[in-house]
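Marked as duplicate of an earlier ticket. Keeping the data here for the record.
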Amino acid sequence: MADKGKQIQLIHGTDEYQVANEARKRVAACCPEADQALKLETIDGAVDTVDEAIEAVRNTLEALRTVGFFDASKTVWLRSASFLSDAEPGRYEDVKKAVTDLTEEIKGGIMDGVTLIVSASKVDKRSAFFKTMQAGGDVAEFSGADKPWNQEKVTASFARDAFKDAGLTISGRELDAFLQRTGTNSRQIIQEIAKLQAYLGTRNGVRLEDIAAVVSFSKESAGWDLADAIAYRQLDRALALIPQLLFQGFHAVAMMYVLEPRLQELLIIRDCLDRHWVKATGDEGWPQAVWTSHPDQDGVFEALGWDPRTLNKFRVGHLCRQAMKYTQAELKEAITLALETHRRLVTTSIDPAIIMELFAIRVIAGKAAHAA
């Protein structure tokens, strides 16, 4: 018998780039490129309807049961299966029955020499299919961390490895600047590293000016740029960014989804500064946070559900510098204004640019703007 642990493989997770990349590596390991024309059957599982899902399962079963052209060895890849979770189309009974048939086929044992590789972004871990793959095969998951501060660590580790694989060296300062632009999307990180690699030519050390010249802002990080402008009370910059982001298709409500948690973070950091639990060191371009120890910290942060001590010191340093621009009272008022602005964006027909610009002016200019 073939090694069943390698004979059935499931690669899944919300990080679609890493799932697809790992699946391609495993397919190549099981079926070298020179053999793929005759010994690889790929079934497209990225489907939308019940009928398409049933057809994908049927094709997979047929591939598993069919002997290869010249010998029994072959690889069957069910790629990007979209019906293995409890969302559409996987939630329908006919699709569930088809997946059950596939599960029973796997339980019964597939032919010697045949390898089944399944890749998917979402898989119901309660399902018989998942439990069967987990019990008798090789399951790998590539998903983001469940908490934002853990996600930063996961993303930074992935990016460091990707730079190393590309033959590039990057320091902590440059890596932070890079991730400020790309955000946490693995695919964009890889694409931007490839751009840097082409831009640098024979040089392998990445500098801040290289990142500024080549690396694009993701939509996510573009929203952070506006949040930074407001947090640093840079009114001209904020007023320039708002129409630019709207022109680029970044919805005003999406801006508020970035701004609201930033203001909450700044209020917490401002409170920590006032308690002398943290201070910022270094210059404006490279601030870092230094935490002091206090017996109340663990209880306070546990109640908040957010522990800033676990964040990157560079990021907390920036948050400290930003929080120092405001008092706690100003930040509380800014949070109230943010909630009101969000409500106006979804309930009125006023130009979103005007609503967002008014919000920026009122927060950055402070009491003078409110009086006016």
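See parent ticket for discussion. The longest strand covers residues 114-120.
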